[in-house]
Amino acid sequence: MRKLSAGRLLRPDAAVAGAYVIFLALAWASYRLDITSRYLFASAVFPGPPSWSAYGLTALGLAALVLFVRKGRGIRVRAHRGAWSLLALALLFPVTALTIYLTLDIPLPLVLAAAMGYILILRTIACRFRDVRGVVLAAGSLAVASSILVPVLSGGVPILDPEARLVAAMSPFRALFHGFAVFAATLAVVYYGRRYLLLAAALGVLGVISGFKSDAIAVLLSASIGGLISGRLRAREVALAGIPILGILTLMSTHIAVLAFGSWNIPPLYYPFYRAGFTFLVFDRIVEMALPWGMLGGGAILSTSQKVVSTAVLGYAEPHIITSTLLGPLTLDFGIPGTLITSAFVGLYLGMVGNHRGPFQTALYAIVLTHTLILIEVGLQLTSLILYISVFYLYLAWKGDG
To answer: What residues have CB less than 8 Å from 212, skipping those under 6 apart?
Structure first.
């Protein structure tokens, strides 16, 4: 009964809708708590609480997402896995190449070579490996190597050095660490159970060192979700994993805020309220400026640094990384159609991948569900498309025992 209940709770429509409601509740509370509202409304950027239009458009987007999830469940992609796999690769190469091109100042031949190299890694995982332990070892090793290169190339330890953290934010090795660490930890727990929680914890620590809480949370949350769905973990063990996640959301977030601003007066336990409130206020500004047909015509989704929101929406003189909710980027680009495009893409995708069968597919579903839950606050971006398409390809092409 416990496993069945967990399975229902972690279905994509229930999980995403539930997490979005929690996010909105945190934001709503932040506007009414004196400890957070005094800072949210301290400047002319946000003169007051968000409008009902922002809540209404969010409700529309969320309702559409749930409907598209249910529509996606009826699409039996595994019946035509060869054609779908080729389509995934055909999409993955240009999206990866475009992301690298927009992020890194390197010659075009190197961009194309890097994109092709990434695809070859995926094909090797899907078609050559037969032993999941080998995949876990390879992915874990790549994650560790990438985590070492992040501070080396950033000029310092990101969690301790704000300048190094800014450099690390755009580092391809940080993105590689995120992907391979989540992949290794989730596969290990789904296949081999609770004894591999130590691996997830170790990779989570490396995520903390990277200076970005989403990296560490993604590793721990994805492994926990995968273990719960597969029955490898019990609810009590997953609850224990929630303790470090809560610490990352409060203590680590407060530490990062102090590094960034020099001082911070909001107590750690209130930081999640403040962050949700700030992000939803950004979405409210997007709704005010971009409806009905959008404003940037693709500029937001193509901003791999997520800095365009700070200048185009908030009017910052110096660009900063600003989150705008899952629906924010494409709404800023294309208005209400952009909201519905986001809901259709994410909903159909989760509906299709939610039809998981073996343990390998279960692990992949846990990874993309976790990523989607993080995007509720962060916002859809090109790197997310790379992850979604990569997982979809592996979901169809895996030749191992999953």
So the answer is: 158, 165, 168, 169, 174
